[in-house]
Every structure is written in structure tokens, then in C-alpha cells.
Amino acid sequence: MDFYFVVAGVVTSTLVILTCASWIASYTGVQDEAAARYTIATPAELAQEQRSDAASKNFSTTPNKDTHGAAQGAAQSTVDSSVLNSDHVINCECPADGRPLGYHIPSKAADIDAAVERAAIAQRTWSPTFSQRRRLLKTLLRHILDNQESIVAACCIDSGKTKIDACFGEILVTVEKLQWTIKHGERALTISRRPTNLLMCYKKNTVIYEPLGVVAACVSWNYPFHNFISPVISALFAGNAIIIKPSEQTCWSSVYFTDIIRGALTACGHSPELVQNVVCWPDVADHLTSHPGLSHITFIGSREIAHKVCASAAKALTPVTVELGGKDPAIVLDDTLGNLDEVATVLMRGVFQSAGQNCIGIERIIALPQVHDRLLEIVLPKIRQMRLGSVLLDEHGKPSVTLDMGSMISSRSFTKLESLISSAVSLGATLHSGGHAYAHPAHPNAHYFLPTLLSNVTPSMPIAQTELFAPVFLVMRAESVDDAISIANSTSYGLGASVFGHNQRDVQKCVRGITAGMVSVNDFGSYYACSMPFGGVKGSGYGRFGGEEGLRALCNIKSVCEDATWARWLGMRTRIPPPLQYPIKDGRTGWEMCLGVVGLGYGTSWRERLEGLWRIVRTGSR
Question: Which of 164, 226, 275, 602 lies 20 to 30 Å from 153, alpha-carbon distance?
């Protein structure tokens, strides 16, 4: 009996020691991954916005110099005035109020070569543990949470959106991606075991996710912070260096965002050269996208430009993940009548967030008969009451001022938009509100388009087939669930979609029937807020970023097949039987053995497998 007490005591003590050791290791790991704190210089324009004195609302209308520097020293402190009016510089301005933001010196081909080389050198020594990768992302996460006001202000100044839109579209989705990658990134990239088969039963199969080297991302202007940092998060966690090419329309804020990322790298003891910001004109971009030093490209933009990017990347056989926007439908089923007010608020957010400049924004509301008219009654007064303006400039010193929507990035699309709306009206559509550009009385140099409500739109109208990327609440009537699905699939796009309803049979019929890469049920864009794979089909592109699939897309997925440990102990390994060794001595015998191997490994009955084994034994003994 004493013996059993001793054993029980030893086992209990061992368990206690192991548990304590696990706690200590866990605590130590958490301490090792603790976020580092760091500071970076704030752009002068942000400091001006954050000052409370009324004088700070006054700003010059003459071109300013970039006062906070540019990535890789692209900005200059002095420049000849004649250069400012040429293609030698990119003049930056706030689209919501027209204020100048200085200028940026665009990169030339030689600058791109140098950036790729710097990134390649840094990546060769970038072999962090998963713990170090998590610490880097935790450091970024902490800095973003601590500096939301400045980051949001930069996004508002550079893209014209409101602070609320920037919080949803820039901050929330970025910290979600950081948190998801911190929690789940290692699992996605850990060596994975794969099954074997009877013939290879002595083998161990694994898949290794290795860094590609230097990758690139060419991103759009509509979310200047999130689109910029999102590919950086994935690239660095996968062990790569990255070249980021932001749109020249939002290159002003990209300098600040580069500083944020590089500040985190430096604070964690890593090379800031792992991230390179390259701003260039389109005619130079081909040198980047065809560069042999790149192993992967992520492109976010228009279909027209995607053709050029993919053709350019093909010169070096560089794989490309392509996200090209869409004409996202939102089907509203009849059984939502009881909570149609709630549905309308989600639809309004889906249409008007960031002035409709959202790749997964709702471009078509397809309403069934019982909810169609009531939906129009609900949204029309809301749309007419929406207030437009430059949220930072207007709110400064006037806390009572509340704005609903900011500006468009530019007025280049306004003529086309107005033409599409006029064409739809001439073909039978009803224009309830808006439909044209808005000359803001306080900001004559800004780019505003009135929130628009258009109904009675049919699939045959050009406006129903064209991605608007604008604040247009476009309503289409469907006579049945099948008709709604048909209308949803009537365009050349297939990015995202939404379905609102309660009858699960009808909802799931829509989910399965809509041709799209992503679907939200009773919501808008919720898949993106959950870090799911992001991407589309048809004319909306191919490949995925986000989630496990997005991380793995930035890796060399290496398959490794080797002898299992137990097989090595038993001396089992691949040997070529004499009848199959070169030079073949007897073709008939060799063929019989081949039939035996196939039969043993893949016969569909025990009889076939035994016959295969007998053939192997018989031919092997000859």
C-alpha cells in the first residue's frame, strides 16, 4: 500500500511541476511578445488639425512642400516653382476641401531597382520566430490603438472621408486583421501533416510554408491606411519583405503610414528596409510589376489596369492576386417587412460609406414586391437629409456640426456618373434625389456628389452593369427569389453580395445561387470584419487575400515526402525491384509487375488487391 502512495505522490508532484513549468513558459512567452512602444513624427498638417485655436483653420492655397518627409527620401525641401507645375512631381491635395498638402517626387525605374534591392538584402536576414512576428504585430496594434486620432485624420485629409467612415474602414478592419494574425497566423503557417497511401505507407508527408522573398502590393486609394498596411501585415508575418505602391492620389498619407510600420520594425529590432514605399506615375509602374526581383504581386484596382498589371507580371512569370471591385447586390426578401427599418440602416451604410467608394459597397438593392415600395419610403427622407462636407475642417472649433458623408477622391468620374443616371431615367428609371455633382459653398475646390436614390432600374440599363463607386442607392425590383438571383448574377462581376431574410430555405437558395466570392447574410461586408478569405470570381478577379488562404498565398508551399521515423528504424525504404531496373531485362515481366503494383495499391476490392500482391510476388521471383 505504501508503494501506491509513493507512486501517487510522485505522479502528483510531477503534474504540479509540469503545470507550473507550463505557466512559467506561457508567462515568459507573453513577456517576450510584449508590444514595444515607440513614437514617430506627426505630419505638420495633422498637428494643425489638432490645434484648437481658430487661426489654424486658415490655410494657404499655394503649393506646399511635403513637411514630414517621404519614403526613401523622395520628398524635397526645396524645388523650383516650374517643376511644381510639371509631371516631375505629384501635387497632393485634400479632396474634401481643396487644401494643398505639398508634393511628392515620384520614383523612377532606378529608384524601383534600388528599393527592390534594399528589400531583398533585408529579407535575407529576416528569419524571425513566430513569437517575434507576433511581437511585431502586437507593437503595430498598440501603436494604432494609441494613435487612432492621427491615423484617422490623415485618412480624412487624404481621401476626403468622414471620421466615422475612417474608423470602420481604416482602423477597425486593420486591428481585426492584426488580432487575427496574432492569434491564428502561426497555425496557418505551421508545418502540416498530410495523409499517405498503402503503397507509400512507410512515408511521412508534410507541407512547409516558406517565405517567397520580396513581394509587392499595388493598392487603391479608397482606404489609404488599411489598403496600405493590410498586405504588409501578411507579408511580414509570412517572412517576406514587401514593396508597397500606393495610388498617387493618396501618396501624401502613405509617407506617414510607412513611418508607422518602419517604426514598429525598428522598435522590435528588425530592419526598416523590409518595407519599401514606391510612389510612381503609371508609365513607370510597369517597371515594378515586371521586375524579376518580385515573387508575388497583390493588385487592388480597376479591371482596365489589371489587364496591364497581369500582362506586365507575365514577363517575369510573377503570380498575381487580383481584386477588381464589383457590382455587389443586396437581395431583400419579402419576409424582412417586419424589420425593414433595421435592414434599411444596414443598406444605407453599405451604399454610402466612404461616399460609395468601397469595393464591397452595395451597388444594387434587389427588393422583392412586398418590401420594394416600403423600402423606398424609408430611405428617401434619410438620403435627402444627409449632410456633406470636410469633417475635419468643418468640425474644428464647431463641435455641433455633424456630417454624414465626405467627398469623392476626385471629380473625374462625375460626367460619366451623371450620364449613366440620365440614361437610366430616359429608359424608365425614377430619380428620387440627387443625381449630380454638388458645389459645396464652403469648399469650391472640393469633389462632392449628392447622395442619390434611383429606382425602377432594370438589368438592361448601362447603370445596372457598370461599377459606379459612388453614393448611389440603386433599387431594382424582383418578382421572386429566383428572379432576384437572376438579377444578382446579371453582371460581369462577382465580388461580394448580401442577402436579407429569415426563411432559411430562401436565404440559403440565394447564398448558393449567387455567383460571388463572398456573401453576408443579414449584414453587409461582415466576412471582411471576420478575416475570412477575400476575393471574387468572374470580372472581380482571382486569388484570395485574408485568412489562412491569404497568408499561404504569400508562401512557397513546399511538399516534403520522406521516410517515416518507424520505417527508418526498420530499414524500410524505396528500392526498385529487378524487373523494373534500367535497363529493363524483360518487358513482359516488368509490365506484369506494374499491373500488380497498381492492383495492390488501388484495387476496389480485396480480391483485386490480393491478385495484385500475387502478381508482384510471382514476377519478383523470376
Answer: 275
